[in-house]
Amino acid sequence: MKRILLLAMLTGGIVVNGMAQTKTPVGSLGKNDPKAKAILDGVSKKFSQLKSVVANFVLKVEGANNSVTDSKKGTVYLKGAKYKVNLDGQELISDNKTTWTYTKDANEVTINNVDPNSTSLSPAKLFTNFYDKDYLYRLDGETTEKGKVLQNIEMTPTDKSKNVFKVIVSIDKKGQNIAKMKVYEKNGNHYTYEITNFTPNGSVTDATFSFDPKKYPGVEVVDLR
């Protein structure tokens, strides 16, 4: 789940820190907020117009007491429904038909078919109307952080059996980009994803989204297709 959720930071803009500025009333439980939907629809529309995305990000892992226990840097590439994520010796690659998960320490790659019916978040779903099917959402006010006005949307999965019980998505109001996302797990852990660099419509070839075992001498292949 953590691998997939970090992909939510594909269309960000800045590393954010700051203080709360305004707060909106909490909507009715069990009912989606039309203001939040309008914001998410705007992000989805803008994202659909991009040919490709390359973004660097920082993942911070916090324990139940909000202390930072780990911090990692990563890079994500996206072209349509295809994606590749590099994070701390791991690679997650998908050409929208097959996924490859490579672990450097073990020099092992696991291969799976893409499940089009999966409810897991992927780039293809994240910036479409997935939120109308799998989440309840509401606008949770605005914050001003590093000169940017961010619109914070609280999302809760409709499937309460998931380990993740809440996600806060912060969207740059002017740029209509996801700037930050914080994921809350039932075990008390929090994961914050912040963009450090964002390049839309960069040069990304289709070869980026496939795994070539010749480039990984001695790799062990676990094919689960």
CATH fold topology of the domain at 46-87 and 130-211? outer membrane lipoprotein receptor (LolB), chain A
Uncertain parts: 1-29
Percent of sequence in beta strands = over 45%
Order of helices and strands: HEHEEEEEEHHEEEEEE
Mean pLDDT: 79
Named CATH architecture of the domain at 46-87 and 130-211? Clam
Largest sheet: 13 strands, mixed
User: Helical amount among residues, as a percent range?
Assistant: 10-25%
Q: What name goes with the CATH superfamily of the domain at 46-87 and 130-211?
A: Lipoprotein localisation LolA/LolB/LppX
Main structural class: mainly beta
Individual helix count: 4
Give the N-to-C terminal Cα separation: 20 Å
What is the oligomeric state here?
single chain
3D shape: globular
Total strand segments: 13
What does this structure look like?
- This protein has a 13-stranded mixed sheet.
- Helices cover 12% and strands 46% of the residues.
- The longest helix is centred in the first third of the chain and has 15 residues, at 34-48.
- It is globular, with a radius of gyration of 18 Å.
- It has a domain at 46-87 and 130-211: outer membrane lipoprotein receptor (LolB), chain A, CATH 2.50.20.
- The model is unreliable at 1-29 (pLDDT under 50).
- The protein is mainly beta and 225 residues long.
- A hairpin with a 4-residue loop joins strand 11 (177-185) and strand 12.
SSE blueprint and pairings:
Blueprint: H1 2-5, E1 18-22, H2 34-48, E2 53-62, E3 68-79, E4 82-87, E5 90-94, E6 98-103, E7 108-113, H3 123-126, H4 131-134, E8 135-145, E9 148-157, E10 164-172, E11 177-185, E12 190-200, E13 220-223
Parallel strand pairs: 7-13
Antiparallel strand pairs: 1-8, 2-3, 2-12, 3-4, 4-5, 5-6, 6-7, 8-9, 9-10, 10-11, 11-12
